[in-house]
Every structure is written in structure tokens, then in C-alpha cells.
Amino acid sequence: MSDGYYSSKKTDDICEDVCGQGSKAAATISRLKCVLQGFDLRTYLLLFIVMPFVIFAIYLHGQKFTYFFRPLWESPPKPFQTIPHYYTENITMESLCSLHGWGIRESPRRVFDAVLFSNEKDLLTIRWKELYPYVTQFVLLESNSTFTGLPKPLVFKSNKDKFSFVEPRLTYGTIGGRFRKGENPFVEEAYQRVALDQLLRIAGIEEDDLLIMSDVDEIPSAHTINLLRWCDDIPPVLHLQLKNYLYSFEYYVDSKSWRASVHRYRPGKTRYAHYRQSNVVLSDSGWHCSFCFRYISEFVFKMKAYSHSDRVRFSHYLNPRRIQDVICKGTNLFDMLPEEYTFKEIIGKMGPVPRSFSAVHLPSYLLDNAEQYKYLLPGNCVREKQTGFI
Ligand SMILES: *[C@@H]1O[C@H](CO)[C@@H](O)[C@H](O)[C@H]1NC(C)=O
Ligand SMILES: *[C@@H]1O[C@H](CO)[C@@H](O)[C@H](O)[C@H]1NC(C)=O
Question: Which domain holds residue 150?
């Protein structure tokens, strides 16, 4: 210790000698030297090794810092009023409506299910088979542009034969992309939703028909839609609380998905949207399966195409081997922290999503065709090699 004291003392002495004399410029330079000499080794270490490391870490994980501290700068949205949901098999519709405090109608409402389609072929099949008994018209719009302005093949059009089971009830439309470079993806998305409003009118939607607004991967359960078409006093705009799954029904995340909604259509008033439009949500109304794709190539496409493509911060995120690894571990494709509003929830959800071994209460078409869709069921995280076209 005394040695250290001695050497720094000595440095100060030298400095005093030098700093006291010479021209102005020389004085400045030598003063700089003095300052540098005044730093000890630890300061240099901090400046040239620790600091770059910290900056690099912030560059790699900056998003995590902001997500982790989100509870400090953002308060949670106003909570929904959750309507309890009753259902059992073989119960009369009259008692079911009355359990919810609603009366029963003489005839059910007509139901329109409208989606913007990207490339979710399997989930579209499972969705349409689930809802088929109760839907009057399926309305599907697809564009040759992704929300991020990348050209996209008309996947539905080239697979139309696989969806012949809905043919008599289908209103299908296409729209040309605008392909604006560098634009916020939400603008293209909004543009496509406006076109979907027009397509709904073409499909013949009328006052008080039920309209389901949801993404393809947000699948309401059939009994939920049956309930809502039969009961009279349901709210004009009702959100559906769905169970969140990731990659397949093997990874159950939580039951907090709420973006899907059901509207009693009002001509000139109802607009197709995918954000919060009322304060009521019906509990346990179906499934939201994010990134539930059969092929790794479809993961890559979706990661580049969807509205949060800015999350692909490093190109190695798109590496197929990494993606397969992420799926089987139940970790995050974008290496992000959970998007939550309290520290308790963020910390509680950090790390991989635990595996679920339940395949109870899933869409019935999935279990009727378990072999064909086994990648969506527990125990089958390894994706098959792609053969032929998408
Ligand atoms: C369903 O309800 C009918 C009529 O109430 C009854 O006869 C039948 O046994 C019930 N089936 C089941 C599986 O509970
Ligand atoms: C997209 O579709 C529009 C309208 O059909 C067409 O004019 C345009 O050439 C298409 N663009 C691409 C990149 O396929």
C-alpha cells in the first residue's frame, strides 16, 4: 500500500515541475500528459476494456434493459371487465344463455369470420374446420406484399384446392401491395384492413350480424361462437380471451390474449381493427398459437414479414438450426424478455416456456387429424424437412 502511495506522490511531483513552465501550447500538451499520468491502471482498464464491453452488451441486449425496466416507465392498461364463461357439453342453449345473464333468440345471428391471410395454411384449416358449423361466410383477403413491404406469393390462391370444403361459403379477395420502402409496417397493415372492410360488404354483411375480427392464429372455440350467435343481449363489441401458445400446443404461455373480438355489425360504424375496442372480454374463448408453423422456412418468412420485424436485430436469428433449437427449448425467437408490466410477471416468465403435456380442450380438427398435425401436439418439437412448394 505504501508503495502505491509513494509512486503516485512521485508522479504529482513531476507534474508540478513540468506544469509550471513553457509556452501556452506546450503547457496545454504537458497538462494533458499530467492528467493522463494521473490516472492509475485501474482507470485505464475501466476506460478501454470495461467500457467497450458495457457498450457492446448494451448493443446486444439493449432491448432487454428497456423491457426489464418497463414497469418503471409504463403503467399497465386499464384492466378489462372479464365476463365469466360457462360451458359444458350437452347443455341446452337456453340455460347456457341464461347462465351468462342473456336471453335466447328465436334464430341465431349470421356469423362472418374475416381474416388477413399471410402464410398460415395449417392454422387456417384448423380454424375453418373448428368454426365451419356456425359461420355463414368466411372472408379472406391476401396481398402480394407483407406488412413490411416484401413481395409475397399468393399462398392461399395457389392452395385453394385444399380449402374446397369452404368453397360455397367463401368470399376471397386479393389486393396489390404498395411496396413503400422504409415505411412503418403498421401503415400497410391498416391499408389491408380497410380493404377487408370493403370485402365484408361484398360478402353481404348486414346489421347485427356477428363479425369475428382476429388474426388467423387466434382461433375462437366453436362453442363460444355458437353461444354468441344464439344469445340476445351480448355486448356490441366483445373481446375474446384466448389461451396463448408458442410454436405448438406443447408450450402454453398464459391465458391473456385479448386482441380477437366479436362485433354485432353496424353498417357505416364497424371498422375492422385489431386493437382494443371495448372494455369487456369473455373468458376462456379459444386459442392463440403464435409461430405455430410446420416448416422452419415459414418461421423465417414470418420473422421478416410481420409488423415487428425490427426485432430481427441480428441475421443469425434467422439461422434454421438456431430456430429449431429455440423451438425445442421453448425459448424466444428474438431473444427478448417477456412483455409485461410488473417485475413480478417479468421475472416469473423469464427463461423458457415449460412444456405442457395436455392435449385436452384443443381444436377438434387437430385431434381428429393428429398424425397430420403432430408437430402441433406435445412431444413433437422437431420440424420436418420441407418437400416441394410452400
Ligand atoms: C344429453 O342430454 C340428453 C337429453 O337431456 C340425455 O338423454 C343424454 O343422456 C345426454 N347425454 C350425455 C352424454 O350426457
Ligand atoms: C402485386 O399485385 C398488383 C395487383 O394485382 C400488381 O399490379 C403488382 O405487379 C404485384 N406486384 C408483385 C411484386 O407481385
Answer: 81-293
Phi-psi region of 189 (alpha: psi -120 to 50; beta: other; left: phi over 0): alpha
pTM: 0.82
**How remote is the CA of residue 233 from the centroid of ligand 1, in Å?**
28
Q: Is the dihedral of CA 263, 264, 269, 270 positive or negative?
A: positive
Q: Of the residues 142, 144, 179, 181, which should be mutated to test ligand 2's pocket, given the most ligand atoms within 8 Å of the CB?
A: 144
Closest ligand to residue 95's CA: 1
Position 199 confidence tier, pLDDT thresholds 50, 70, 90? very high
219: CATH: 3.90.550
Ligand 1 centroid, distance to 98 Cα (angstroms): 19
Query: Any residues with Cβ below 6 Å from ligand 2, and which?
Result: 144, 151, 176-177
Could you identify the residue written with the cell 409496417? 185
Looking at 244, 270, 293, which one is the last position of a domain? 293
Tell me which H or E stretch contains 26.
helix 24-38
Tens digit of each residue's pLDDT (9 = 90 or more) over 289-311: 999 999 999 999 888 887 566 77
99 and 248 share a domain? yes
CA of 88, nearest ligand number: 1
320-376 per-position pLDDT tens digit: 999 999 999 999 888 777 777 777 777 777 778 899 999 999 999 999 999 999 999
Q: Tell me the ligand closest to 146's alpha carbon.
A: 2
Do 108 and 42 share a structural domain? Answer: no
Rg, the chain, Cα only: 29
